[in-house]
Amino acid sequence: MKKLIAFAALAVLGAGSAQAVEYNQVLNDKSALAFTYKQMNVPMEGSFKRFRGQLSFDPAKPATATAQFQIEVASIDTGSAEGNDEVGGKLWFNSKAFPTAQFVSTAIKPLGNNRFEVSGKMTIKGKTLDVSTPASFRQDGANAVFEGGFVLKRADYAIGEGVWADFGTVANEVQIKFRLTAAPKK
Amino acid sequence: MTNPSSPSTYTGPARSLHWLVGLGMLATFGVGIYMSDLPFSPTKLQIYSWHKWAGVTLFLLSVIRLAWRLTHQAPGAVAGIPAWQHTAAEWMHRILYVLMFAIPLSGWLMSSAKGFQTVYFGLLPLPDLVAKSKDLGDILGKVHGSLNLLMVTLVALHAAAAIKHHLIDRDEVLVRMLPFLKTR
Q1: What ipTM, to 2 d.p.?
Q2: Burial grade of B71 (CB within 10 A; 0-12, 13-18, 19 or more)
Q3: Residues in chain B with pLDDT values less than 70
Q4: Which residue of A lies nearest to B113 if distances are taken between CA atoms?
Q5: Beta partners for A122?
Q6: pLDDT tens digit string along B54-71?
């Protein structure tokens, strides 16, 4: 009888703890937002240094998860000093008028094997478009790590207008790669 | 190269490679000076790429040129030229050969250090032999610039010597590299 009670208590506790795991504390220092693009067919690597995220993810109920990110556009590193001076300007990000880029999830579809299809609205330079990206989930100690990437076409958001609009120098396709680490709810 | 059996003139390929590489280096140097002061623009990025492709091409031509030089005897000293002048000319040629390789190499390494891989004609990526580093990029930039200043200075001396031999000494030195000048 004692054993049975202990077993029942353990089962309840176990179930309770599984339900309680919700990752919602984004750890900025363990997260990264990087991109690669081609300039005269030369591969270049860049990143955004400052961004904030709000996440709510319960592995047991992924479909109810939500994610939002605000990216400080001026924190961009394009891979070259001249590029960094250039892209804040009106033809590129116009970061004075549009200092923040944003992503807000609208749906998260489990694909199995801890992989998900995340759909949402991406706003850059005042323009909002639907995007979707695959993302994988894994545990790293107590934390959750989400990784994924997708191709963004810069022309869709008018990133690089005027003399830069032609794709012969800077390609249209920009490969975005993200890694987000979140701690469980406190 | 005072071998009595040495030829009296340079071979056709040696002359072609001399003028191709020499004029190519001067032109690419001119483009390099011009492009570095341009404001950031697609044109600047294009010209930088063209400059790098020209540099790779000149490096490859220099490899062919050196191979040709090592397998085909160059003409010896022109009769009547003081020995010290001949020695000076030979050392000049050696240093110019070193620069033919050192200048494109320093540019390639500098490009890698500054974070730009060299992709020959936008098709063939050359490996990055050094990692991206601002300090190393600045150093290699100075090296590339200094080697180029040395190159144009030496080429100017080399050309001045050839012209002096042709117009003042009226000997065969320049004619060996430009046979159509032969009038006598």
Answers
A1: 0.81
A2: exposed
A3: 1-5, 183-184
A4: A80
A5: A103, A129
A6: 999 999 999 999 999 999
pTM: predicted TM-score of the whole model, two decimal places: 0.86
B122 touches chain A (CB under 8 A): yes
pLDDT digits (tens, 9 = 90+) for B73-106: 888 888 888 999 999 999 999 999 999 999 999 9
> Which pLDDT belongs to residue B77?
85
Local structure of B91: helix, strand or coil: helix
Q: What burial letters (b/e) apply to A32-64, b meaning 16+ CB within 10 Å?
A: bbebbbbbbbbebebbbeebebebbbbeeebee
B49's tokens: 């790429």
Question: Torsions phi, psi of B13, nearest 5?
Answer: -60, -35
Domains and CATH numbers, chain A: 22-184 (2.40.128.110)
Name the minimum distance, in Å, from the CA of A84 to any CA of chain B.
11
Residue A38: partners with Cβ closer than 8 Å, 6 or more residues away: A44, A170, A171, A173
**Domain boundaries defined on chain B:** 12-181
Residue from the list A41, A83, A169 with its beta carbon closest to the beta carbon of B119: A41
